[in-house]
Amino acid sequence: SLVSVQALCFTVSKLVFGVASDRVSPLRIILLGLLVCAVTSVFFGCISSFYQILLCVVCIGSVQGASWVPATKLTGKWYNDRSYAKMFSILGCGSTAAGLLMPFVQYSYWRSLLICFGLFTLTFSAYFYHTLREEDINPQQIKSRESSPSLISLTYSPVIWSVAAVYLFSMEVRTVCETWIPLYMAENDLSLATFQVTYEIGGILGNLLSGWLLDQLCTQMGADSARRLVGVASSALLLLVAAISIKTLQYVSIIGWSLGFLVNASINVWCMIASQLGDSHISGAISAFVSFLANFGSVLAGSPLAFLIDNFGYDCFVPFFFSHIVVLIAITSMNIGFNVKGRKQD
């Protein structure tokens, strides 16, 4: 129940803070998230009541979404199209690098770990604000109602739904890699530790190399064409590897590295696309909404996939993910651009 509460709060907070980043200084939003996480972590390390723990989980989950979208807006402000992909990819390595720390901290006492993390985050918050205090500027607002589409009208955009659908596939496979594959490996006495390490290493390389490749291709073709090519290719390869993964898990290192590389490469590209679908005054809301829709991929990888596994076993992975490839081809064939144009406000 605690995991479900945290996931729900995180999903909602990502949407809320994404919209807020179009109206409030991204620096202040990130700082708010850091401070609340820091204070809550210290408090978390000193409590024992279930309801106190639940409160801490809600608090942390409710501000976890305060980091990503505001950070991408700052990155977009600092770098142009020729270097944006590379810097965006480096930014995206944060969560993957954090996963690599798990083997080193899993035997630490959880209370001490939380308190140390909270104190470190509190110190970092002061350094963060001191270094970037000149960026503490509220975004410029578009006062003309005719030139700014309403948030509700954006939900009618086929661009948003097409990007979210493909992004959803990547989130779905990531959930499979974090839940069903480890379960299958445990049932069949395969090396889970090897899979996890190679998965995280592949993830970091997938982030970095996809960004580097986009920067190289952008000099040869348009940014949208480059992103479409890399995004569709990485998603198609990811779904193909996911389909055959259960059949080939005896090659743990290769499959772990390949899945980590392709999951993070595809998420990196589609998240990058989502961050620049609209003008700066509405880009935060668009990015947050696309991410919100894509998170339903984790839902599809839950009970619906569990039903298929219960009835058909893990062999269902092949038709399940090949059907996704068919949908991916159908969406790609529509050739929908990457520029959101919502209906004008009345």
Automatic annotation (TrEMBL):
Q: Which PANTHER family match?
A: GLUCOSE-6-PHOSPHATE EXCHANGER SLC37A4
Cite the GO molecular-function annotations of the record: glucose 6-phosphate:phosphate antiporter activity
Q: Does the keyword Translocase apply?
A: no
The listed locations are:
Endomembrane system
- Domain Major facilitator superfamily (MFS) profile: residue ranges: 1-341
The entry's protein name is MFS domain-containing protein
Q: Please give the superkingdom of this protein's source.
A: Eukaryota
Q: How does this protein lie in the membrane?
A: Multi-pass membrane protein
